[in-house]
Design brief:
The protein is mainly α. The protein has helices at 2-24, 26-36, 38-47, 60-89, 94-117, 135-163, 170-205, 212-250, 253-265, 270-303. It has ten helices and no strands. The N and C termini lie far apart (91 Å). The relative contact order is 0.14.
């Protein structure tokens, strides 16, 4: 009886050690997964500040907090469980979903590039009747638009996060998914808050009550931020293209093999390998985005509602 009891204790001890070793891997898995979604994180960070432009400066942080709260809710209670359930009951769906999301990112990136370089873009914009709304209604519209954009990017983030832990125990999968959701949300919206309030910080430091060096630094922040936001927008667009194309490439055996060939052939020059892969994916992303746009234009008439009173010919 005693020997059986001690054998049971040994089994429990071994199980605890195995679980502890498995949990010890979680930080490494979170770091690896965060690296994989860095492109989407950059885009999310670049896109969000535009939703508070033109609003009451005193409300900026409150608006960002509302967006962040909804983003975290979606990641923790909707997207993470959905990814885990799909992974358990229909794992074959994960790759097509990722590829569809990648195609959407390429489409969005292509649209941004097209709007930057199209000479007729400004001329094609029609002047619409101005809708008068209250500041509260405008704030609500901005938050809704930001959350709608965020949920698409968040879905990609959580799907990629799950794809990195499919070979891990279920408990590890849950812990990594939750950790990634919390870490990325805090990092993205914390940085967005800092970007949005940087002008105010610069104006504060430029006041006469500070010494000349501090005032000069404050004025430098105010001057630098518009250029930084423009640069961040370009980086976000590039990230959408290369990340979207890379997601699609990894879902196709032939192109996935090509990416591995690039990485292996330039393994001795990791920075060059990354640059070549990113540039190749960005160019491919432009091509995919172009094709998706043409497909959208082709299919759009099929989804247009028939005007009331219209008579079929």
């Amino acid at each position: 009886m005693a020997s059986g009891f001690f054998a049971l204790l040994d089994d429990i001890s071994a199980l605890v050690k195995a679980s502890a070793a498995s949990i010890d891997d979680v930080p490494a898995q979170v770091a690896k997964t965060t690296g994989k979604v860095s492109g989407i994180v950059i885009d999310d960070t670049a896109v969000t500040p535009k939703y508070v432009v033109g609003l009451d400066p005193s409300r900026e942080l409150s608006i960002i907090f509302r967006i962040a709260k909804k983003s975290l809710f979606n990641k923790l209670l909707i997207l993470s469980p959905a990814a885990l359930l799909l992974g358990y009951f229909a794992p074959w769906v994960i790759t097509p979903v990722l590829m569809l999301g990648g195609a959407y990112l390429c489409f969005e990136g292509y649209e941004k590039v097209h709007s930057m370089f199209s000479k007729h873009h400004a001329a094609d914009v029609e002047v619409e009747n101005v809708k008068v709304i209250t500041p509260e209604e405008l704030e609500k519209e901005r938050v809704t638009g930001a959350v709608r954009t965020d949920i698409i990017l968040s879905a990609e983030i959580m799907a990629i996060a799950y794809s990195q832990v499919t070979d891990q125990p279920f408990v590890n999968q849950v812990v990594v998914m939750l950790a990634v959701a919390i870490f990325i949300t805090v990092a993205v919206y914390g940085f967005v808050g800092l970007i949005v309030k940087a002008d105010d910080i610069g104006v504060h430091l430029a006041q006469e009550r500070f010494n000349p060096t501090t005032r000069k630094f404050g004025r430098g922040i105010v001057t630098f931020m518009p250029h930084f936001l423009r640069f961040l927008s370009y980086v976000g667009t590039a990230a959408m293209l290369w990340v979207g194309a890379e997601i699609i490439a990894h879902g196709i055996p032939f192109t996935s093999h090509l990416l591995h060939v690039i990485e292996e052939s330039l393994a001795h020059l990791p920075v060059v390998a990354w640059a070549v892969k990113a540039l190749s994916c960005a160019i491919a992303g432009l091509l995919v985005g172009f094709l998706v746009e043409k497909l959208v234009i082709l299919l759009k008439p099929l989804f247009k509602k028939k005007k009331p009173g219209a008579v079929a010919e």
